[in-house]
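ARCHIVE CARD
Drawer: 12
Card no.: 0347
Subject: one protein chain, sequence and derived structure
Cross-reference: see card 0346
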Amino acid sequence: MSGWSAQDVPGQSGRVAVVTGANSGIGYATARELARRGARVLLACRSEARGVAARDQLVGEVPGADAEFAHLDLGDLASVREFATAYPHDRLDLLVNNAGVMALPYGTTADGFETQFGTNHLGHFALTGLLLPALLVTPGARVVTVSSPMHALANIDITDLNSERRYRRWIAYARSKTANLLFVHELARRLAGHGSDVIAAAAHPGYAATNLQAAGPRMAGRRTAERLMGVGNRFFAQSADAGALPTLYAATAPDVPPDSFTGPSLAGWRGSPAPTWRAPWTRDDRVSQRLWTASEELTGVTYDALKG
């Protein structure tokens, strides 16, 4: 794994990939490199204008790339269902649950869930469940969910998943990223119990310069915080291309273990991909099962193919 780079991504010819939030940052870099290696890539984005522009940029950077835009708003379960219903292929080799929001002012999704929990976890939980049939029929398929080292700030509160009693933007973000890891843990356990060879794994980019950091302060009108995020991105963060490497590794490298967590090698901050630390509570079977049950109830998406 030492020194692993985008040049080491194996050939993806004949494979189909869905990358959420692929219009910019880590998602765009992930989609571009998969397309560069021959994958057919769906850029699943909320904004049609930004998604189409990203698709056009990608094709410009990778002539001959097989890339399509598809509308997906993870904060709207109706949109998630529409995306899954319209999914145009009979196989899915790789689902990259990348899109996310961070440290936003309190708000709710179209379905009334706290925005960070609803978008970062519930939207991807529903999407994965609805696309599960295509994953299960595809030999060697993978689901890679992007979490964050910030998950270490907080375990989930199973009695207050939507932060209705008290909302703190960074704690809500951390809980949504813990939920991502609990989801991967439980999905890997259920896939193994089903006898499936689909791999569920997680990754995080470390500190990478993307639009994610400034979105929350901008929405809250906190201009000083927005400027500080910009300074941090400029002087301390690694590039989005470098930040995408752990995701690409988890998605394509051979022998990636189920329920693994890949991040940058240098203190989880930057560098080539490596196994990375995760909080013990993200492998708690009891909590992951309770979160799974709650997620099925909240989204109405049940993983029937993994039952029985």
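Annotation on reverse: The chain has a mean pLDDT of 91. The CA atoms of residues 103 and 169 lie 5 Å apart.
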